[in-house]
Structure formats: structure tokens, C-alpha cells
Amino acid sequence: MTVETAIRVRGLRKSFGDVHVLRGVDLDVPRGSVFALLGSNGAGKTTAVRILSTLLTADSGTATVHGFDVTAQAAGVREVISLTGQFAAVDEILSGRENVVLVARLRHLKNAGRIADGLLARFALADAGRRRVSTYSGGMRRRLDVAMSLIGNPPVVFLDEPTTGLDPEGRLEVWRTVKELARGGTTVLLTTQYLEEAEHLADRIAILHEGRIIANGTLAELKQLMPAATVEYVEKQPGLEEIFLTIIGTAGGGHEAARDGAAASDWKERR
């Protein structure tokens, strides 16, 4: 495993009874990158993440995370990773700040209050920090969940379908969070079934289908697998998502989300 590689997987296999979920997965995730594991429901994405995060044992194959073997050095892996699942693991009775302080204290970190204030500010939750999480939107809960996962500054973060069930505005909030992680040098392994999400966020994309990686590369490299493009001139009409974000932006309080939606649309057009 080289210094440039955060995660290396070779020949990973996992079955549940007669169901073969992973059938020999190989992949490398560069340090400080956003790597998207793309696949439909049941493709094996969550199983792969659970193995890499030491929550599940593979039947065969090897995997290392930040230099630690996930089987022989599970404790070392847990020290350097954080996992955010498909649903935000936050306590709705507590305030946002109390949630972060609780996790910091459980990890025996000093200055838990200062850590909480810093993370809430980083993820634009400072104004809502004293409110109960039960009053948060889906996007706010997800940002809080990610903020809690960063306590202790883990170098590797697993995000398992982080935008499942979120509205367009909440999804864009999570996208901004992932970009912030990457800018800070964190390695992010992101699982998703949304093609647009992988296009917008990932430095590299692997497609997992029926337990196997069938394609792996940058977006530009994956595009080369397609037939040559033809040029057509069509009248471009705004999509419903762009309309929605524009309307809520003009209504106030959603200008940044509207700009992000327009930027994503422009980015897709330039492609």
C-alpha cells in the first residue's frame, strides 16, 4: 500500500447463505479524494462499506484502510475512520450542540464545547446549535451527522448513501459538506445510486454491479467507454429541480442553494 492510497481492496467476497453479495471486488482510493461507489439497490455497496469499517467480516479477500488491515488490525482502522450511514444518527431530544459535545466527551477529548462550536460553525449550524434537533430539516440533520463524524479529525470518512430521502435543497447542503471535507484533505468514500451525485462530487467513480466492479475511473475516462458523441442543437428548458431552487431562492433564505442548483445545471450543459 503506497502513501498515496487511503483504501485498497483486493478480491473481496461476501455471501449471505446462497446470496453472493460481493464476488471479488478490487479498488484503490487515493488519499484526499472523493471516491464514489455507484450502484443500484442490492449491488453490494453497503456490504462493502460495512466490511471496510470493520462492522462485517469478509469471506475472503483483503482490505486495508489508512495502512491498517480491516481484519487483523480492526482497532487501528476504527481509530482513523468515521462512518455516516443512510440515516442520520442524531438524538432528536438534544440540541445540535449537545449532540456534538456528547460524542466529543465519549471520545475522551478535551474542550468538548470548543470542538462543538467549531464544527457547528464549519457546517453552518451555529445559529441552530441551541435548538433541539427535532426542529431541524433533513439537510441540517445530515450536516450535523457528518459534523459529529468528524470529531477527532478522522482521515477517512465513509458516507453510505448520504442523500437518500432528502429534498433537493437538503441534497445540495450535503454536497457542499462533502466538498468541504475534500478541500480539508479528508478521504471520502461515498456510496450512491444517483448518477448526478457521483458526477458532481467524485474525483473517481467505480460502478458496482451484481457484486463486481465493472468500471472504474475518472468521469472523463468513463466517458471514453461510450460511443462518440453527436452534436445536436436543442432548446434547453429548465428542469423542475432548477425551477424549484430558483423559486425558493427568490422567496428568501435559499439564494445559495439556488445558485448551486444553477451551477450544477450549467456544469451538466458544459459536459
Radius of gyration, Cα only, in angstroms? 20 Å
Mean pLDDT metric: 84
The number of domains is 2
Amino- and carboxy-terminal Cα gap: 34 Å
Order of helices and strands: EEEHEEHEHHHEHEHEEHHH
Give me the secondary-structure category. Answer: alpha/beta
Look up the CATH topology of the largest domain: Rossmann fold
Shape by Cα distribution? globular
Describe the main β-sheet briefly.
6 strands, mixed
Could you characterize what this model shows?
With 271 residues, the chain is α/β, with parallel strands linked by helices. The chain has two domains: 5-226, 3-Layer(aba) Sandwich (Rossmann fold); 232-271, no CATH class. It has ten helices and ten strands. It has helices at 45-52, 74-80, 96-106, 112-122, 138-149, 168-183, 195-201, 219-223, 240-250, 255-270; strands at 5-16, 19-30, 34-38, 60-65, 68-69, 81-84, 156-160, 187-192, 204-209, 212-217. The strands form two sheets. It has a six-stranded mixed sheet with strand order 6-7-8-3-9-10, sandwiched between helices. It has a four-stranded antiparallel sheet with strand order 2-1-4-5, covered by helices on one side. A hairpin with a 2-residue loop joins β9 and β10. α3 (96-106) crosses α4, α5 packs parallel to α6 (168-183) and α9 (240-250) packs antiparallel against α10. The longest helix has 16 residues, at 168-183. It is globular, with a radius of gyration of 20 Å. The two termini are 34 Å apart.
